[in-house]
User: What shape does this take?
Amino acid sequence: MIPHEYFLVLAALLFTIGVIGVLTRRNAIIVFMSIEIMLNAVNLTFVSFASFLGDSIGYIFVFFVMAVAAAEAAIGLAIIIALFRNKQTVNIDEINILKW
Amino acid sequence: MDLYTIIFIFLSVLAIASAIAVITRTNPVYSAIALILNFLAFAGLFLLLNGQFIAILQILVYAGAIMVLFIFVIMLLNLAEEKRLSEKFDYKRLVAVIISVTLFFIISYVFLFKGKPFLQPVQSVYSVNAGKVEAIGKALFELYLIPFEYVSLVLIIGILGAVILAKRKFE
Assistant: This one.
């Protein structure tokens, strides 16, 4: 069997890859995909603890996280569509009207 | 080296490789397909951890609904390929990567060396019954009913918001 910590370190590694994607990429849709990777890594942490401790609350929290992530993805993509209609770009470097 | 370990190594390598593919491809469609592969690897990892309900939910919700949404939007916007990522070697990107790797070391230090009080198994080490639909349904509809209703409210607000934001304004 796999020791407990392997799953947690794997989740931390995937979370880090998501963070690098959010900070590095300029395409707004790729940034959204990296956010989904981060959410999935957190889900993996919750499921690991739920499995190790034998409590269902971890799985239930993952259920809530998935529902909220679905709603957030829908609204975020709608915002990107509205943004693209006005500026014809999804490059986050060019969306800088509020820049001081 | 039993079958559990082999499957764990395979799924974790698949998840890491597809996540790196998501953040490094220039074509957004390639990133979306790599993300689907990542979600399937996660579903397999959830199944290894006795989370049967969550594994099926992952495939249905993430790989089935959210990725379809992503691909619809990518096709709708008809995006061109992003310019080569390493055109100019940006010091900002290097600093971002270094900070992220520091974050990884901090998190794994906490999990590996400070996590002993939280990782004491209560009953058996890998208890199967917690992840089955009966246990989750019983807890979800008895103890956590109010958050469940709030989540349905969140989803309705999400639907309304997405429709209003993406609607064409008729002048």
